[in-house]
Amino acid sequence: FVSDTLITMSDGSTATIDSVAVGAAVQSWDVETNSTINATVLDIERRDRFELMDITLENGDVVTSTIDHPWWSHSQNAIVSLDPNTTETYYEVSGVRMMLCKEVLQDAEGMPVKATIKRRPIPKEAVDVMTLKLDRGHWFFTGEKRGVRVHAGVR
Questions:
Q1: 3-state SS, residue 88
Q2: How far is CA 27 from CA 9, 47, 90, 117, 152, in A?
């Protein structure tokens, strides 16, 4: 995610991903109970990337991530990305499906959130992106008004 991406903290407030510190508590998702939990940030992974996408949520929020970042699709009931093969390799997940240009993601209440996906033109210089590594849950929420569920870094 780019540096100004908003992350939902454990108290429901938001903070930019570049201001979240190791040891901070964020909202996560427990796949066993299908509910939100709090998770502790173990690490912030950074890398330079060229291929990015903008995800415009139905409320107008725009979240920018790498094309291979795993998102939870409410409509497909699966992990999705624009580059499933890379996603499976890098994030050590399986069964990743192709993200649709009109996708339905999931918020912190497990409710559907409509989104439009658009690849960005490839920049001349790499962009510094980051993701969180969590102690549990392996999911966090991005977005300002109604955050959506995204996978955390490599387990």
A1: helix
A2: 5, 23, 23, 24, 11
Largest CA distance in the chain: 44
Greater confidence, 145 or 107? 107
**23-44 per-position pLDDT tens digit:** 999 999 999 999 999 999 999 9
What's the pTM? 0.93
Determine the Cα–Cα distance for residues 16 and 9; give it in Å rounded to an integer.
10
Cβ contacts of 125 within 8 Å, gap of 6 or more: none
How far from chain centre, in Å, is Cα 67?
A: 11
CA distances from 149 to 31, 69, 80, 115, 127 (A): 11, 11, 11, 12, 23
Q: From CA 36, how far away is CA 90, in angstroms rounded? A: 25
Please calculate the CA angle 42-45-51 and round it to the nearest 5 degrees.
150
Q: What is the pLDDT of residues 49-88, one digit of tens each?
A: 999 999 999 999 999 999 999 999 999 999 999 999 999 9
Structure tokens at 139: 């999911």
CA 125 remoteness from chain centre: 23
How many residues comprise the chain?
155
